[in-house]
Amino acid sequence: MTAPLNEPRPTxxxxxxxDTQQGMRRRNLARVLHTVSAExxxxxxxxxxxxxxxxxxxxxxxxxxxxxxxLEELGPERPGRVGRPGSALAVSGRGPAGIGAEVGVDHxxxxxxxxxxxxxxxxxxxxxxxxxxPEPVAAELGxxxxxxxxxxxxQGLWPAGLAVAVPGLVARDGRTVVRAPNLDWHDxxxxxxxxxxxxxxxxxxxxxxxxxxxxxxxxxxxxxxxVSAEIGIGAAVVVDGRLLRGTRGFAGELGHVPVEPxxxxxxxxxxxxxxxxxxxxxxxxxxxxxxxxGRVGLLAxxxxxxxxxxxxxxxxxxxxxxxxxxxxxxxLDPETVVLGGALSGLAPWLLPSLEAELDRRxxxxxxxxxxxxxxxxxxxxxxxxxxxxxxxxDPSAVAEHV
Amino acid sequence: MTAPLNEPRPTxxxxxxxDTQQGMRRRNLARVLHTVSAExxxxxxxxxxxxxxxxxxxxxxxxxxxxxxxLEELGPERPGRVGRPGSALAVSGRGPAGIGAEVGVDHxxxxxxxxxxxxxxxxxxxxxxxxxxPEPVAAELGxxxxxxxxxxxxQGLWPAGLAVAVPGLVARDGRTVVRAPNLDWHDxxxxxxxxxxxxxxxxxxxxxxxxxxxxxxxxxxxxxxxVSAEIGIGAAVVVDGRLLRGTRGFAGELGHVPVEPxxxxxxxxxxxxxxxxxxxxxxxxxxxxxxxxGRVGLLAxxxxxxxxxxxxxxxxxxxxxxxxxxxxxxxLDPETVVLGGALSGLAPWLLPSLEAELDRRxxxxxxxxxxxxxxxxxxxxxxxxxxxxxxxxDPSAVAEHV
Lengths: 402, 402
Prior knowledge:
Distance between the termini of chain A: 11 Å
CATH architecture of the largest domain in chain A: 2-Layer Sandwich
Largest sheet of chain A: 5 strands, mixed
Region (Disordered) (chains A, B): 1-24
Order of helices and strands of chain A: HHHEEEEEHEEEEHEHEEEHHHHEHEHH
Oligomer: homodimer
Domain HTH marR-type (chains A, B): 30-81
Family (chains A, B): Belongs to the ROK (NagC/XylR) family.
Protein name (chains A, B): ROK family protein
Pfam family, one (chains A, B): ROK
Helix content of chain A: 40-55%
């Protein structure tokens, strides 16, 4: 099947793809499945009217989707009516499942999500991964994945693919972690260390967090900038409902946007990067707190208790975020900025100075800033849902494997 | 016909488009025309093998394109061979033409480009447009457009559409100039002031400049950041060969990316924006030169003559551009940055400090910076070619009008 992300590689003009009956059938299968997924339960006739195909054409497509276990018939609807009753169709709760996994700096997690978007199995292990070699971390993550897959199989589901979120830059091959500074991993082929039984994609946690926001967030528009933090500060740019990845897959490095051109040196080689003002280390230092696990929680607790030094540190971080986001908003003109990940828990103390900075620097109405309702769950959910979306986008690829 | 730009509006998931025989025919017509445009002259058989359709299917499509004047048959090729000789096909030099026009701060221009990409007619008027009302400017531009259209008609061409480049922000309606500070135009419906005989698109000059670079530049990759300047500094972001427009159509405002958070106030409402360091006014002031027409040329002349103050001013501007571009490169991860418009003529004195700044601030290999070979011609050519591309992308829309 295709890679479980919504990013087809562009086809060059030198070798245009032919548009064939088979390609049309594949796209129409996806249209039917997406329509039932978004609006179901629906009868065949309702699907036909929604996608503008004949009922006969839709019936053929539906039969194929039922055969391959992606749709199920809920039985006749309104049975008292004259004529052959329409059977309501729903996306299957026993077909393929998307397996998501996450390597966090301080935890590992895995989950299984069915085609309806419901989390059906889940496993988490807390404990730091800082400075651990990739092999033992991948082995532990593999065990969590196996646990989740077994749990999904017990419920009649089967894994359609695995997507793994990591706190670092991932090459466009979707498996190599080029740089994960807080794990101290470099050029790690994580794909080779994980179970090979299913199609695999590894991606940056900020990207999966943004996709989760796009697919699961409340009223998230198709154009937005998603800013998240675990230890570093990452961002993801979503344009017309698609993730902007960049040439090497490195787009969204908001943490290294210069905020003060001659500010403190940053390990990246730059000076005055945003992370030097709003990264976790910088904020903890400014707040007079020590490092260690659960530090973001401590910042929130102290800020909520009214600690002036902590609140000052968060206010300054918000200001620096506002400067960097002004640049990003000027370049990208997104409809909204969404704060996700660990930043969502600190939003009450970051937002006022962040928004003030954005307002005073932006001509015309400032870009609205909202807080993700998914919080730290975003990347894991985004990973699992990316596999589910790949099935919805190309159901024929799964059907061929049944 | 469709708007002469390569940006179809996204269709929402709530109303998926049906995939029909007719849609397939339209896309295959475009594939045939694009293939002949990129690689012709080609025989029907060669087109068929390149796009993966049968010769019979291609012949039907070719006949339609010949009938509507988009392709022409050059006559039998290799006439000595056994069997029916294949006739070589070429894109027509007498069919539709793209009409491009430009409102510059110091000039007006129009041109006609045929489907082969050749400029077939051209008209220019020099003289400042600063502070002039939109109506007389549009009337003069309309006269230039009429002159160019008449010249094209004399050569057997007919206008397929008109695209106009302006030095300002244009709404996504493709006709309203929201803000053109150097013309002092605000919320101007330029569409209403121009000839209504053809489909019309108005867009920012930086956008058209970037599209020209994409279509006509030497080895331009599909992911790049195009930086240009007339009086202000604009940029355009091209991702996977498509222009990133932003929610309101305002993406690419590099000139208002903060470079020094507490730097000088900018008319945009911000502080320390890039234009305060690298905009034309700022550079002329730092170079000790007066304002007036042809000022960028004067900077280049003085710098070439070794004027230390001018060179220092351009070095400082390059440094500020380097800081702003570091942020942009971190966010977008483009394959390359291209300096176009007036900046291309100043590149020898801007580039060293710009590249040094980008290098020292970027982790890993720095993003390469190149200079556009199109220079100030880019926006006008990009406008005309955008109409041509729209014909290549949907030939059936034109055919219906023949």
